[in-house]
């Protein structure tokens, strides 16, 4: 028998509340769906199938051989012994691809956002952020000494009203030294929708703010991201890209000027006080970028196939009269709002039993009443798979309506 220390009562009470609301999170197995050959992937962030791409896998090994790197770990933080030579090669290539001055690799998107927002905005500065911004940005903001205010989701009028209030504060005698940081995502992970980045860049210029865009779910789906696609690199203060989604590997980077890179190296605690990524991880990042660059020149690339898949999914949603449930999205994330943890979990289970892995997103991850099924689309999803899963969804929804 194992001896263990009991969980404090107030912590157990919080778990009990989650369980009573049918919202208790549990860890599942990672690859059991594909290995079983029974379930179709509509849940992973592997939008382009790069996580299993053999070309990328073997190219990463070639890069390690070319650099004579036969090491399993980084051996220390990047500021001590862990800044192996692949970091420089990968960061230079990433900056070149995104047409920015510099890039700085972090161990994860969470580390990058926490490191950036906990160190860059200073006491007296102001952060304006979209109300649906990712948890990693929120956590970074909470660790900063800046004032933070949310604006309504993708609402330019609300954003401008708050920017105007900041301008009035300056005019009324507040220190003119404070900076304003305006933060959004190019594709929101829980809705799959996008803001008007061009209009936000215009507002940023008008009000003299520092514009920051998280491109986690846009990189690879929209080529090198929506900022690059719209040619806004010179109008954005900092861009976050992550590699654990469409690029199929691990890590993240902050893109921007040489000055912001130098600042983060000196003050971002999530970079300074952690062991660096091992050489193989950085080699895989570089191999994934090389593959994406090569694919961008091909007439039938994974990105083109993904776009066709997204368009087909939206057409089927329309043909089956399911638009009322789905949030409008041009991205690989398509969400059907089905209120209630119990209801959405039951439908998700029905789809899973039929062979389709579609995850239910529950409150409190999102607001109560906004529970949903999140369909993550991939370049390898077939039209028959889409037709079948949406037919099953339609029947399930009719069944619950009848109940």
Automatic annotation (TrEMBL):
Cofactor: pyridoxal 5'-phosphate
PROSITE patterns, per the entry: AA_TRANSFER_CLASS_2
Key words of the record: Pyridoxal phosphate, Transferase
Source superkingdom: Bacteria
Single GO BP term: biotin biosynthetic process
GO function term, MF aspect, one: pyridoxal phosphate binding
Pathway(s) where this gene product acts: Lipid metabolism
Domain Aminotransferase class I/classII large span(s) in chain numbering: 40-387
Pfam short name (any one): Aminotran_1_2
PANTHER family registered for this protein in UniProt: 8-AMINO-7-OXONONANOATE SYNTHASE, CLASS II AMINOTRANSFERASE/8-AMINO-7-OXONONANOATE SYNTHASE
Family according to the record: Belongs to the class-II pyridoxal-phosphate-dependent aminotransferase family. BioF subfamily.
The protein, known as: 8-amino-7-oxononanoate synthase
């Amino acid at each position: 028998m194992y001896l263990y220390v009991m969980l404090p009562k107030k912590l157990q009470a919080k778990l009990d509340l989650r369980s009573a609301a049918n919202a208790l999170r549990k860890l599942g197995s990672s690859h059991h769906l594909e290995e079983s050959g029974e379930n179709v992937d509509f849940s992973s962030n592997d939008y382009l199938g790069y996580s299993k791409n053999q070309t990328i896998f073997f190219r990463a090994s070639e890069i390690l051989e070319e650099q004579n790197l036969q090491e399993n770990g980084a051996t220390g933080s990047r500021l001590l012994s862990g800044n192996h030579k692949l970091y420089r090669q990968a960061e230079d290539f990433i900056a070149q691809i995104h047409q920015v001055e510099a890039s700085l690799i972090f161990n994860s998107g969470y580390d990058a956002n926490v490191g950036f927002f906990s160190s860059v905005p200073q006491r007296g500065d102001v952060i304006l952020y979209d109300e649906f911004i990712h948890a990693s940005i929120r956590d970074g903001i909470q660790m900063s000494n800046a004032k933070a205010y949310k604006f309504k989701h993708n609402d330019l009028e609300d954003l401008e009203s708050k920017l105007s209030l900041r301008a009035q504060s300056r005019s009324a005698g507040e220190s003119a030294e404070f900076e304003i940081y305006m933060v959004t995502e190019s594709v929101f992970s829980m809705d799959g929708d996008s803001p008007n980045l061009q209009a936000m860049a215009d507002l940023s210029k008008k009000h003299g703010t520092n514009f920051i865009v998280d491109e986690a779910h846009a990189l690879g789906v929209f080529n090198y991201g929506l900022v690059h696609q719209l040619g806004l690199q010179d109008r954005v203060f900092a861009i976050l890209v992550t590699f654990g989604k469409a690029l199929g590997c691990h890590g993240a980077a902050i893109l921007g000027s040489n000055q912001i890179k130098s600042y983060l190296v000196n003050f971002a605690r999530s970079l300074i006080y952690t062991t660096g990524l091992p050489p193989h991880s950085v080699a895989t990042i570089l191999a994934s970028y090389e593959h994406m660059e090569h694919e961008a020149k091909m007439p039938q690339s994974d990105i083109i196939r993904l776009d066709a898949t997204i368009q087909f999914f939206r057409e089927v949603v329309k043909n089956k009269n399911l638009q009322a449930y789905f949030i409008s999205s041009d991205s690989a994330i398509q969400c059907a709002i089905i209120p209630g943890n119990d209801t959405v979990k039951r439908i998700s289970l029905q789809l899973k039993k039929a062979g389709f892995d579609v995850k239910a997103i529950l409150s409190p991850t999102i607001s109560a009443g906004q529970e949903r099924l999140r369909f993550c689309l991939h370049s390898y999803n077939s039209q028959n798979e889409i037709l079948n899963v949406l037919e099953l969804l339609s029947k399930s929804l009719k069944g619950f309506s009848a109940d």
